[in-house]
Batch of 2 targets.
Target 1
Amino acid sequence: GFSRAMVKTMSMAAKVPHFYYLEEVFCNAMVKLKALFQKENADTNIKHTYLPFLIKSLSVALSKYPILNSTFNEEVNELVYK
């Protein structure tokens, strides 16, 4: 049943090594750019966020290093790039 499937999934996840990465980034220029966008925006109801900057930087990084978004197919013993 459900419990058996959950145990199987958790057991499989325990076999796969996880990857963590930490980097300190100085975002002073991005903070200024966001403030400039907000200041020049005629509609005060629209609030600019950092999300577009994050999405763009992650998409560039994943394009350059696709292995960071890969999975491991245990049946054929190979990496699957997404």
Target 2
Amino acid sequence: MPPRYAIAASPAAIPVFTGRNTATRRALRQDGDVNETGLIGVGEHLSRILGSIEAGDSIRLPLDECLGLALGEAVVNSIPLPPFANSSMDGYAVKAADVQQLPAELVVSADIPAGAGAVEPLPRGTAARIMTGAPVPAGADAVIPVEWTDAGIHVVVINRRLSARTHVRDRGDDLPVGSVLGETGDVVDAGRIGLLASAGVAECRVYRRPRVAIFATGDELVEPGTPLGPGAIYNSNTHLMRALASADASVEAVETLPDDPVTALTALVEVAGNVDLLITMGGISAGAYEPIKQAFATSGDIDFYSVGMQPGKPQGFGFVGATPLLALPGNPLSSLVSFEIFVRPALRRLGGFSELHRQSVRLQLLNTQRRSLDRVRFLPAVADLFAGTVTTADRHGSHRSSTAAGTNCILELPAGPADARAGELVNARLLK
């Protein structure tokens, strides 16, 4: 459904939108979801987002093009794995009863390489030289590793006894016919591709990668490589967000917008119909130049909140026509944290994944950190999973790009009056 909007003739006027999912989004608002400080909870904001969006289209793709995508339907194998009884060792296929008296001397009646087609049954009282993965002949019920023999070619001397089915991988031993190889929403990772290929699956139905457009706002932003003028800073946000989003989405457009609400809104409208998610950074706080917030001030299609988190307090969510928009604060660290807490789960939902969130672990904090009285603090940190510890940077601030470089987790400190002391167990969201 195309967005409905009108841009007034006067450049001072603000276009008005009617989003398809506005009613759904507003239905998620609950009385009492704002605390006494005027902040909504992190979980409440995330629930509003995830409750308003759904997975996109699914398509059939060749297996090797499915890497990293989510299955669009369950996959069930139609053949047993392995498809025939085969040897797990290089050695000799035997009847276990023939090698109970040691040393056992058996005539070698056949050679069976991997890939052998029709295999003759094993004559009683003989052995067949066999390679790993080769079919075990009828009449044999065990495989003697070559290391347990004299490696004879015509006659073999066996020095150790064994029981039936030893070193034999039976038909269907891994997965019988009808086993589920993947559920709807499961990620197609390298291991699953190997499993699907072993079951003869050549293509899969998967959810399409969501398409995103990324916008930073600010008259002060210039691109890296350009000389800095008075009052200018380099635009790091679009580069940061592209790097973050690329793991779960196809980045279709990246643009830097001036501090003008009409220009910003026009740019969002032009691209909205071609993507599945709009991401903006900056322009939503309490200053005089907040183009994103001002652009939607009268339409009601984007809701702006103060969320109980630090950094990342100002947040926005709504729809431009039928396309969801996530409005993030503009400071680099705020943008990074907001992406991990809100945008990434939204991209995973749009991409059809059943698992939306990063893994969280409990680790021992090595350096004391201050808590906020009314907000959850999210701190980039370095986790040592072998030692079970986590360390945060010495200095924090939503503007500090240096804080995030080299980190591998985000520490989560719930609001409270007491500091998180060194030695305390804390929650950390792993980023890698």
